[in-house]
Structure formats: structure tokens, C-alpha cells
Amino acid sequence: MNGLSDLQLDALLAQDAPYGDxxxxxxxxxxxxxxxxxxxxxxxxxxxxxxxAALLRRxxxxxxxxxxxxxxLAAGEVFLxxxxxxxxxxxxxxxxxTLVEYASGIATRTRAIVDAAxxxxxxxxxxxxxxxxxxxxxxxxRSVLAGGAVMHRLGLSETLxxxxxxxxxxxxxPAEWLAALKARAPEKKIVVEVATIADAVRFACxxxxxxxLEKLAPxxxxxxxxxxxxxxxxPVIAVAGGVTQANAADYALAGAAVxxxxxxxxxxxxxxxxxxxxxx
Length: 280
What we know:
By secondary structure, this protein is α/β, with parallel strands linked by helices. The protein has helices at 6-16, 22-27, 49-59, 86-118, 137-146, 164-167, 174-184, 197-206, 218-228, 248-253, and strands at residues 33-40, 44-45, 62-63, 72-73, 78-85, 125-128, 150-151, 160-162, 190-194, 210-214, 236-240, 258-261, 272-278. The protein has 2 domains: 6-114 and 268-278, Aldehyde Oxidoreductase, domain 3; 120-265, TIM Barrel (Alpha-Beta Barrel). The longest helix has 33 residues, at 86-118.
């Protein structure tokens, strides 16, 4: 997946130093040569290291190739270094650090869910929702991929997901509007979100390609899998709403093919240690 554009990187730098770095300028140290290193204080799954290096480069430093996003780091392991004038290092320091901390937090939580689910079902797919903080979709999606999951939906424009809120405006007979929807978009899979076993079976029989079970317990998920597996074709079963590291294995064992989760987006950032020093 593509990283942040130069325009986006420059905007991040401008947010932090819109009129320059007053402290560095008034101390008169901006032209002195220096070195900066980034390391995780704790074990973590790295994300946005490439963007951190690009921020340093845009600020005027010369970074070494960073450790790749998606790498599992041990505590204290250095993943990025750069050389350059103190002004450049200070300008990019905090933005790069914070970006990696938040992104790696998402990647680390994602990997934990993926590992928990695949420990019992290697083929299960973990998919993260579009419930990232607005304005952070690119880096959030990159972090999800770094953690070993996929994006459930990048937005409203590329997938067909029929919620109960849509069905409030549709005829009661799902076969009628499902057939019409398939005729309008024959290359698309139609996902229908349901909250009960009965509705899951009803929409599966009406032709839904994917059933997204909203907040159904693992036992109910297993019941839906059993009730629909003999349909031709059988729908894909996805579970959503409250999927976490703690219950991912239970849902995988219940037979869900896709675990849809927002959990990686909520939690504390990772802790990155940054060291600046003068070089000769």
C-alpha cells in the first residue's frame, strides 16, 4: 500500500512548526551536525517507519533505510536512524515519533487479534472497519495491513453492505430487493448485516452473499454456520461488533470466515524512544 504523499508529509510538518522551530533557532544550534535514532521501548509490531523516514528527509535530514512496517520488534530495538543538521532533526523528531507510536499501536493490536484467531483456524480473515479517527485513513489502513489483517471497507464507495438502517426504506421481502441489487451490480458481493439467527437464515435463503452477524455470541454464530452451510451457494459468515483478542479464537472456532473488528483503532499508542546526539 502506498505511503503518505509528500503533500501530506509536508502538512504534518507544517502543523508542528508552522513558523519554524523557535527554540532551536534562538539557541543557534540549527546548523550543527547531529544524529537521531528511534527504538521501541517495548516489544511491538512496527508501522509507519517509512513515513517517519520520509518526514526526516522532507525536513532536510538523511535517513538510513528503516526497518520495514510489519516487523515484530524486540524491546529496545532500533528501527530508524538519520543524520543531518540539528534544525532538520528537531523539526521532524516529534511528528515522526508520534506517527510511529500511534500507527504501531494499531498494528500491534491487529497482530494480537490475528494471532489469536489463526492459532485455532489458520484460514480465518481478520478485517478492520472504517471506524478509524477521521483524517487518518491512509495511515490506519497501512497499520492494519502491517498487523496482518485486511480492511473490511475503505469507505462507502466500493462495497455493498446493507444495514438495518437501509432496510427501513426497502420492501419487506428481501428476495425482491436483493435480486434488483444483484442485477445493478452483478460483479459485487452483497453483504447483509443481521442481529438474529432467524434473520441470518432468512437473508441467506433470499440470496445474500455474505452475512455480517452483529454482536451475535460465538454459540449463535455456530448455529448460523450450521443452518446455512448446505445452501447452494452457502453464504460467507462474518462476525462484527465486539470482536477482540479475547474472543477472536472463539469466533474462529464457531466457523466464522471473517472477523470484523474496530478494536485495533482504540488503545494506547506504543512507546518509542528517540535519542538525539551531536555528531562530528
